[in-house]
Structures are given as structure tokens and as C-alpha cells.
From TrEMBL:
The keyword Oxidoreductase applies. GO terms for molecular function: oxidoreductase activity. SMART domains: PKS_ER. This is Enoyl reductase (ER) domain-containing protein.
């Protein structure tokens, strides 16, 4: 089968690899249909991922069809599926609590082990969800949207709340969309006026704040001096995450959707006087994927406006390298592998 391999930072190649063997009991061999390109993939290509071993086949935003099922699996050949790329151990403290998304031994396809920039993969059947009512291209957006849906669910914030989403990239837009679905009054904050304009025109997020020296004043003006009931930071930038504390209303919630290597510091007096909650949000679970699938099927998620760039597997080395630095107008790029 054909696969795109990142040999080392900056080097992508199309290679021939053996197809997966017949699946073991409980596993399924899949024909990859579409794969979304994630910020993580760009970081791997650019050599910015801190814990990655090269060479690596990237790709973890996956839709596929069943080719062959191992013993004990009821799925039949030809079934369209969405792949949850977080392979969990099922035995650690997190898995026992029903939180495989933060398994202590987690392996993410395309990061810790080879992913789906290739024609076929094998995964556990428990990591597959029905792509009911979705095109296989739309199904490939479920994983990144599920991260936003999970963050919104983690916030435990009800309808009518004022929410601020910091970072208008794909993950931030996903969080904003599912914040709106949850009944929140959503404002976006980003350093790019172009991105905020795009979010307004394509997705209807008319309330936006450009991050600059006047941000704090703009937040006070938007909220009558109270701050936002819930703030989602999706920037992956430490200083932004630290500043986000000051945008939270008394009794409010800060959800850190992104992650950075560095320590995050905040003012304890400001934190305590607000009696605010700080919540980490990692990956997603089955309930989040199912919420995403149902929301897309209901027309609540404008997938056609999220997917801005398309390519084929054979053209991925050229196009991914170009899109790594040509970001204008780019929200989500999707690779068509089969289908």
C-alpha cells in the first residue's frame, strides 16, 4: 500500500509499505477514506513536536470503511466508520474511571504510533464509531470537532452563559461552534483581525476581540465589567493561557483546551476571589464523538465551510509542506485517500 512518511523534519515521501495483516480478535482492518491535517501534523513536519520519533506516518483525523473484522467483531465489510485515534490501555486509573481520553499509557495514532496518511490501517473495534448520515469527508472532521465538544462539556456551563473562545484556529472554532450549540453567547478573541472577520462571515460569530493592548478594556466592555462566565483557551501559547485567568467572571470557569510544555503561572488572590474553576480538557470520548456526529447530521455544524483545502494522498508531500507556512484562508485541509 502507499503511505506518506515524514522521514525527518521537513522531509515527506510517498513509499510502498505492506498492508496490515489480518486483524487480531477485537481488531478491524480499514480502508482509509479521508484524513484531516491537524496542527500536530504541521508541527511534526516542522520538527516542533517534543516527543516524536521519526520516521512517522502522520494522520489521526480519520474516516474509513471496514475491510475485514477480527473474531468477536460484528462490523461487516463496507461499513463506514469514524476512527477514535486515542488508543488506551483499558486498565489504568483513568480508564477504570471511564476516561480513556487521558489514559496514563495512551498512544495516539500518527503521533506515538503510525497513523492514517496511508491506504489501510488496523485499530481496535472499540475505537470505531458509526458515521451515520455523514459523508466520509465530513466524518473526517469529527475528531477535531470532538475536542471542542469535549471542552464545552467539561465546562459544565449551561445555556445563557457568556463564553469567550481564545484562538480562532480549527480547535477554537470547534469549541466556539459547540459552545453556541450549548446555548452560550459566544465571543472570539484572536491576534488576527483576518481570522475574526472570517469567523464572522463564514460561521456567524459577529462578536470578536482583537488581542492587543486594549484587550482587557474590550472584555470589560463586552461583559459590563463582569468578565465571561466561561473562557476556553485554544491557543497553545503560555502567555495567552495566563492572561485568560483575568477574563473569567466571579464564579466562572476557565477551560484550558490547548497544552504547552512550560509552567503556567497565575495570581492566587485573583483566582481565589473569583472562586473560579480551572479545568483541563484532553482529547475526547465516545459521547463527544456521538454528539458531533448528531450535530453535523442536524445541520448545526457547517462542515462545508470548515474544510477550506483539499488534496490527494499522492499530492500530500507537496501540499502539506506548502500549507505549513501558507496559512491565509486555511481552516481545515483534508486528504482524500480512497472513497
Amino acid at each position: 500500500m502507499k503511505a506518506v512518511v515524514c522521514r525527518e523534519p521537513g522531509v515527506l515521501e510517498i513509499v510502498e509499505r505492506p498492508s496490515p495483516e489480518a486483524p487480531a480478535p477485537g481488531w478491524v482492518r480499514l480502508a482509509v477514506s479521508h484524513v484531516g491535517i491537524c496542527g500536530t501534523d504541521y508541527h511534526i513536519f516542522e520538527g516542533k513536536h517534543p516527543f516524536l520519533e521519526y520516521p512517522r506516518v502522520m494522520g489521526h483525523e480519520i474516516s474509513a470503511t471496514v475491510l475485514e473484522a477480527g473474531d468477536g467483531v460484528a462490523l461487516t465489510a463496507g461499513t463506514p466508520v469514524i476512527v477514535n485515534p486515542y488508543l488506551s490501555c483499558g486498565q489504568c486509573v483513568a480508564c477504570i474511571k471511564g476516561k480513556p481520553n487521558c489514559c496514563t499509557n495512551i498512544k495516539v495514532l500518527g503521533v506515538h504510533t503510525d497513523g492514517a496518511f496511508c491506504e489501510e490501517i488496523s485499530v481496535p473495534a472499540s475505537n470505531l464509531y458509526a458515521a451515520e448520515g455523514l459523508s466520509l469527508e465530513a466524518a473526517a472532521t469529527a475528531e477535531f470537532l470532538a475536542i471542542g465538544a469535549h471542552a464545552v462539556r467539561r465546562s459544565m456551563t449551561g445555556s445563557g452563559a457568556r463564553s469567550l473562545v481564545i484562538g480562532a484556529g480549527p480547535i477554537g472554532l470547534g469549541a466556539a461552534i459547540f459552545s453556541r450549540i450549548a446555548g452560550h453567547d459566544v465571543t472570539l478573541l484572536d491576534t488576527s483581525a483576518e481570522r475574526l472577520q472570517m469567523a464572522a462571515e463564514r460561521f456567524g460569530f459577529a462578536s470578536g476581540i482583537v488581542a492587543d493592548e486594549g484587550t482587557a478594556d474590550a472584555v470589560r466592555e463586552k461583559t459590563n465589567g463582569d468578565g465571561f462566565d466561561v473562557v476556553f483557551d485554544a491557543t497553545g501559547y503560555g502567555p495567552s493561557m495566563e492572561k485568560a485567568f483575568s477574563f473569567v467572571a466571579h464564579g466562572g470557569v476557565l477551560v484550558l483546551v490547548s497544552v504547552v510544555k512550560d509552567d503556567i503561572r497565575f495570581s492566587d488572590p485573583e483566582f481565589h476571589k473569583r472562586e473560579m474553576m480551572v479545568i483541563g480538557s484532553r482529547n475526547a470520548t465516545r459521547v463527544d464523538f456521538e454528539h458531533v456526529v448528531a450535530s453535523i447530521a442536524k445541520g448545526l455544524v457547517p462542515v462545508d465551510k470548515l474544510i477550506t483545502h483539499r488534496t490527494a494522498l499522492a499530492d500530500t508531500p507537496r501540499d502539506l509542506a506548502r500549507w505549513a507556512h501558507e496559512k491565509s484562508g486555511l481552516i481545515k485541509a483534508v486528504i482524500r485517500v480512497g472513497g
